[in-house]
Write a structure and sequence with these properties.
This protein has helices spanning 2-19, 78-83, 193-197; strands spanning 27-35, 50-57, 60-68, 88-89, 94-95, 108-110, 119-123, 136-146, 154-163, 168-170, 180-189, 201-204, 212-217, 221-228, 233-241, 246-250, 257-265, 268-276. With 278 residues, it is mainly β.
Length: 278
């Protein structure tokens, strides 16, 4: 009798676990911002700064998208380094943002920055383990910046968003702060009804061996932007395109690699990865 009861209990547990699912919506987060140069406190006269950009769910690191730091400033991204499981250096021991233990899978890496041009970060919803992240309302993208040696020269700005089957459009209304301006955020789910109505297009040929791409519009489009994979804005045009129109994008002056073409109308934004292979 005890064996029967035990088997029934195990069966109930297995049944409950088999029907319990976690929603996982595919989509794209597009985050645009412009860093602000600080009048004083930078590492050098060229206004160098270090920066980490990362996706969090509550207090859990989901994905590091960008990390710009170097050995001379290993201790300047302490919050990100603690979330990313970095090692320690120095006396006293300090989280080392350049440690080989840091979780930077799939992240764009570089040294201290001097570029204050507009930047774009694109996240495809995939976490640091290569899995599609679960849906939820407690996501945020964080910008952690240090531009000097004093504690006052360190700042973290975070921007909340919901990852689910609905569009979370914050392309307007996010206020500037002391460190970042021109902030825009949109979570665009792949399967959202709104996404099907949003700006859509086809980019061809892809790859291009000349650097010239054709953008064939399938819906009205009011803006076309091109970004480098590092998030630098290469072009930003206001346009008036209708279904069936074609626009030429000339990237022939740029180096081979991956670029992002972003098309927008009043219903949403769609991003397309293109490859330049001259």
């Amino acid at each position: 009798m005890k064996k029967i009861v035990l088997l029934l209990a195990i069966s109930i547990i297995l049944l409950n676990s088999s029907v319990k699912t976690v929603a996982q919506t595919t989509g794209t987060l597009t985050f645009t911002y412009t860093p602000i140069a600080h009048a004083s406190g930078n590492f050098n006269a060229d206004k160098r700064y270090v920066l980490a950009i990362y996706i969090m769910y509550g207090s859990t690191l989901i994905k590091t998208t960008n990390r710009y730091c170097e050995a001379a400033y290993y201790d300047k991204l302490s919050s990100w380094a603690s979330y990313a499981g970095c090692g320690f250096s120095g006396t006293p021991l300090t989280p080392d943002a350049t440690s080989s233990f840091c979780e930077t899978t799939g992240a764009i890496l570089g040294g201290a920055q001097t570029n204050y041009a507009p930047r774009t970060v694109i996240w495809d919803g995939i976490d640091k383990n290569g899995n599609l992240a679960q849906d939820g309302n407690f996501y945020n993208i964080r910008l952690e910046e240090t531009w000097g040696s004093s504690p006052a020269s360190h700042a973290i700005s975070l921007f909340n968003f919901a990852k689910d089957p609905n569009v979370d459009d914050q392309t307007t209304g996010i206020p500037n702060d002391a460190n970042f301006k021109d902030i825009s955020l949109i979570w665009q789910p792949t399967l959202s009804t709104a996404n099907f109505a949003a700006a859509t297009a086809t980019v061809f040929p892809n790859p291009s061996n000349t650097g010239v791409f054709n953008l064939a519009v399938k819906d009205s489009v009011t803006a076309v932007k091109v970004y480098s994979i590092l998030g630098a804005t290469l072009s930003n045009e206001t346009v008036s395109l209708s279904n069936g129109d074609t626009k030429t994008l000339d990237l022939s002056s740029y180096n081979n690699g991956l670029y992002i073409v972003s098309v927008t109308n009043n219903k949403g934004t769609a991003n397309y990865k293109v490859v330049l292979d001259k």
